[in-house]
């Protein structure tokens, strides 16, 4: 059975035509353009997002020359939109998951933070959807509904006002145990739970779309990072992946029992299938690929390939990639990026190399926190995304993790995960493993650095990050 798998992302929308076993018959990509401004504003044109889905999907189908029988869609997760439920017309731009203006909301609700985490599994942070939804209501008007952007896309594509359980768990509004909207959490944010979309399984038919020609059932819905976790066959508790895209996101399967993080990680739904919920732990590096693009804009590198050519030798230079704030376990949205340990001897290559090691160190720090929550360290990390092309970054990651890093053989894990869920939802596969198919790593990076040196490097990075987070707190 062929499926059309769509990954609607921050900077592009990808569409793949995927056959049984995960074979990609055709693919297409259409760029989208987030707009940044001062005070942490990052917005996107919702009509551009929708049109990119249409254009990418139709182009992939034209190249494949083969019919498909179902559609799966992965979405950005915490991006939100205010829109008219009857007409589907957006009331202005969408607020990207990167938008930090809702910090004004989270400050006001600081005394409710612990209770919200108890209910939803998520720390109170403007990264998640609900604070942005409240901010939109206050700043842009009360008309219409305000939801995660996937609910609008699902309505436009298939006429269904729905969101999947994994995406709903990224809002700060979901009762993590029941996977239903929490009336108490909604009340905290001044939102009506009855105005939120219906929550559905990640593999289920929600309606038909004519967006790509003949009617096709939409049978797979999922948030982007959980889609990649699914594609990389992380079906057992303790198995983890990291996607290195605009940001870098590490997720670990936590099993079928509700998980609570002692390490201040985000706990959320990995997927819900046939009413059964699998949970995961989540850690974030908000600026990964975007930090590399920033280096390029500063003309410190000519392009991402230059990451592997930086022959820096000053290991005292430490970079904290918090150009859009710090996520877990610091939750310091107002933190800003910084190099530490600079001297008159510091050169351009030292700055570039420190950025590579800074991304790897933040992921390694999050992986360690996941191991502490699980009671055992991660045995390996599966990886995907554009920055995995950097052998320097992948080797640094293995060294700081002190565990093998397994490179997923496709750059499109998110789309492939959405396609696998669509196959399950259409009934052409019975188990997750059957829906995904078999695969082998394209490369494995083994640790080369002595454990004591890795520990010392990681300790210096963590001390610098903590100092930066504390400084951001003092500047409020």
Descriptive overview:
With about 475 residues, the protein is α+β, with helices and mostly antiparallel strands. It folds into 2 domains: about 5-230, ATPase, nucleotide binding domain (Nucleotidyltransferase, domain 5), CATH 3.30.420; about 280-405 and about 445-475, Nucleotidyltransferase, domain 5 (2-Layer Sandwich), CATH 3.30.420. The protein has helices spanning about 45-65, 105-110, 115-120, 130-140, 150-160, 165-170, 185-190, 225-230, 290-295, 350-375, 390-400, 415-425, 430-435, 450-475; strands at about 5-10, 10-20, 25-30, 35, 40-45, 70-75, 80-85, 95, 145-150, 160-165, 175, 180, 200, 205-210, 215-225, 240-245, 250-255, 265-275, 275-285, 320, 340, 380-385, 405, 445. The protein has a 7-stranded mixed sheet with strand order 18-19-17-16-22-23-24. The chain has a 6-stranded mixed sheet with strand order 3-2-1-6-15-14, sandwiched between helices. A 3-stranded antiparallel sheet has the order 4-5-8. The N and C termini lie far apart (about 55 Å).
Helix content: 25-40%
Largest sheet: 7 strands, mixed
What CATH first level of the largest domain would be assigned? Answer: Alpha Beta
- At the third CATH level, what is the topology name of the largest domain? Nucleotidyltransferase, domain 5
Q: If classified by CATH, what would the architecture of the largest domain be?
A: 2-Layer Sandwich
Ranges where pLDDT stays below 50 over 5 or more residues in a row are none
Compute the separation of the termini in Å: 54 Å
What is the count of distinct domains?
A: 2
Q: What is the name of the CATH superfamily of the largest domain?
A: ATPase, nucleotide binding domain
- What structural class results from the helix and strand content? alpha+beta
Tell the overall outline.
globular
Radius of gyration: 21 Å
Tally the beta strands.
Answer: 24
């Amino acid at each position: 059975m062929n499926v059309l798998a769509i990954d609607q992302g921050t900077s592009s929308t990808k569409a793949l035509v995927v056959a049984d076993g995960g074979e990609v018959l055709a693919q297409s990509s259409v760029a989208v353009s987030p707009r940044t401004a001062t005070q942490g504003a990052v917005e996107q044109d919702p009509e551009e997002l929708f049109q990119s889905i249409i254009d990418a999907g139709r182009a992939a189908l034209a190249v494949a020359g083969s019919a498909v029988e179902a559609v799966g869609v992965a979405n950005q997760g915490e991006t939100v939109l205010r829109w008219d439920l009857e007409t589907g017309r957006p009331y202005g731009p969408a607020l990207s998951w990167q938008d930090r203006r809702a910090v004004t909301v989270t400050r006001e609700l600081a005394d409710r933070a612990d209770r919200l985490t108890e209910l939803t599994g998520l720390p109170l942070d403007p990264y998640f959807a609900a604070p942005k939804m409240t901010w939109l209501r206050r700043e842009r008007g009360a008309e219409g509904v305000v939801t995660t952007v996937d609910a609008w896309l699902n309505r436009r594509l298939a006429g269904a006002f729905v969101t999947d359980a994994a995406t709903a768990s990224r809002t700060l509004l979901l009762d993590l145990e029941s996977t239903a909207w929490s009336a108490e959490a909604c009340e905290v944010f001044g939102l009506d739970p009855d105005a939120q979309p219906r929550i559905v399984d990640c593999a289920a038919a929600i309606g038909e779309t004519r967006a790509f020609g003949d009617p096709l059932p939409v049978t797979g819905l999922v948030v982007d990072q959980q889609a990649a976790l699914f594609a990389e066959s992380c079906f057992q508790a303790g198995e983890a992946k990291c996607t290195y895209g605009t940001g870098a996101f590490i997720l670990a399967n936590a099993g079928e029992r509700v998980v609570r993080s002692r390490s201040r990680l985000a706990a959320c739904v990995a997927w819900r299938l046939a009413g059964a919920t699998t949970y995961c732990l989540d850690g974030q590096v908000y600026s990964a690929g975007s930090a590399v693009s920033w280096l390029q804009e500063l003309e410190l590198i000519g392009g991402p390939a230059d990451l592997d050519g930086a022959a820096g030798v000053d290991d005292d230079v430490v970079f904290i990639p918090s150009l859009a704030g710090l996520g877990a376990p610091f939750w310091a949205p107002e933190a800003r990026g910084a190099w530490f340990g600079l001297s008159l001897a510091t050169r351009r290559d030292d700055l570039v190399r420190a950025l590579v090691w800074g991304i790897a160190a933040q992921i390694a720090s999050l992986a360690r926190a996941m191991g502490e929550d699980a009671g055992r360290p991660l045995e390996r990390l599966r990886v995907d995304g554009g920055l995995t092309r950097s052998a320097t970054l992948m080797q640094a990651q293995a060294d700081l993790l002190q565990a093998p890093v397994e490179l997923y053989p496709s750059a499109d894990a998110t789309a492939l995960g959405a396609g696998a869920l669509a196959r399950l939802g259409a009934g052409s596969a019975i188990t997750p493993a059957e829906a995904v198919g078999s695969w082998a790593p394209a490369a494995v990076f083994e640790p080369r650095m002595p454990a004591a040196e890795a520990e010392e490097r990681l300790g210096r990075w963590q001390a610098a990050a903590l100092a930066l987070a504390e400084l951001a707190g003092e500047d409020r």
